[in-house]
DNA sequence: CCTTGACCTTCCAGTGACTGGAAGGACTAT
DNA sequence: ATAGTCCTTCCAGTCACTGGAAGGTCAAGG
């Protein structure tokens, strides 16, 4: 399979696939004309990467997960640890974003949004985090 | 005030303050020795930026908000619009992260996390998004 | 007066994970 | 032969910093 078809199959843009090759996540063979040739195992890897990335794992996490996936003598504890750490990061981000949303929703709610210059949003930004929630 | 003291006051690293100057967010004066000299208005601006950034506004949003803040004839509607758009982006991210968390929490829960190689997390990543929630 | 150390300056490079575009070769269909 | 689509490589840009090198400045102590 050529890169274009793989891109459609795996749901990853050709550019991204080339980038994954550049950083050593996949190693497709080459045809005599220089075109990349993707075998089933490559396509499988790319699907694995697509799914991992969609769950928010970093590229380095993906690299490790892929290595564990291919290591028949892995310990599931190693996989679980990575997933748990990632889950913690996500929960941290969620907490941060939730706090932002609360503050912003409150501010947006308080703002008349008309032609007058008075604006509680700007007042908050200028005053600091006094009326946070 | 020199940059170091300003950094402590505004809670922004000196490097970041220099970067803000480079992209035109602040324009501190200069002493004869070449050192930046920050006046109250500069420090006020930096505090405004720190607060805006902490609410997740992009630098370009911050630039616009700062301009509105300094424009006495602004319409609060313009400010509100930016805040609302930002709120929408945050809600989008929250939805995405919440979905990731659900999937990951489920997978982590299903994984024994012991010395055996069998791992539902890897199975999910390899199989695609079948057992999402 | 000299040194030490903390501060300041500029400039360059790297981060993460792509993404866009240019320049040029290869393949397919007409 | 030609048009159009695919492929290749390489370089640059994104966002908001952050780290580090090389060197100037300042205040305190000997």
Summary of the model, kept short:
With 133 residues, chain A is mainly alpha-helical. The first copy, chain A, has helices at 3-10, 14-22, 40-54, 59-70, 76-110, 120-127, and strands at residues 29-30, 36-37.
Key traits:
DNA-binding; homodimer; 2 domains; 65% helix; two-stranded antiparallel ribbon; 6 helices
Q: What's the layout of helices and strands?
A:
2 copies of one chain form a homodimer.
Chain A (H helix, E strand, L loop, with lengths): L2 H8 L3 H9 L6 E2 L5 E2 L2 H15 L4 H12 L5 H35 L9 H8 L6
Antiparallel strand pairs in A: 1-2
The structure holds a DNA duplex (30 and 30 nucleotides).
Give an overview of the whole structure:
Two copies of one chain form a homodimer. Chain A has 133 residues and is mostly helical. The first copy, chain A, has two domains: 57 residues, Orthogonal Bundle (Multidrug-efflux Transporter Regulator, Chain: A, Domain 2), CATH 1.10.1660.10; 59 residues. Chain A is built from six helices and two strands; from the N terminus they run H-H-E-E-H-H-H-H. In chain A, strands 1-2 form a two-stranded antiparallel ribbon. The longest helix of chain A has 35 residues. The N and C termini of chain A lie far apart (55 Å). The model of chain A has no long low-confidence stretch (mean pLDDT 95). Chains A and B meet through helix 3, helix 4, helix 5 and helix 6 of A and helix 3, helix 4, helix 5 and helix 6 of B. The structure holds a DNA duplex (30 and 30 nucleotides).
């Amino acid at each position: 399979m050529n890169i274009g078809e793989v891109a459609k199959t795996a749901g990853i843009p050709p550019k991204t696939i080339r980038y994954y090759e550049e950083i050593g996540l996949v190693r497709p063979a080459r045809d005599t004309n220089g075109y990349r040739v993707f075998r089933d195992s490559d396509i499988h890897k790319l699907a694995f990467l697509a799914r991992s990335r969609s769950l928010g794992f970093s590229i380095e996490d993906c690299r490790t997960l892929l290595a564990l996936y291919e290591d028949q003598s892995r310990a599931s504890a190693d996989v679980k640890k990575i997933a748990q750490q990632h889950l913690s990061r996500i929960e941290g981000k969620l907490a941060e974003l939730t706090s932002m949303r609360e503050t912003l929703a409150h501010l947006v709610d308080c703002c008349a949004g008309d032609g007058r210059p008075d604006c509680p949003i700007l007042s908050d930004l200028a005053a600091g985090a006094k009326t946070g929630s």
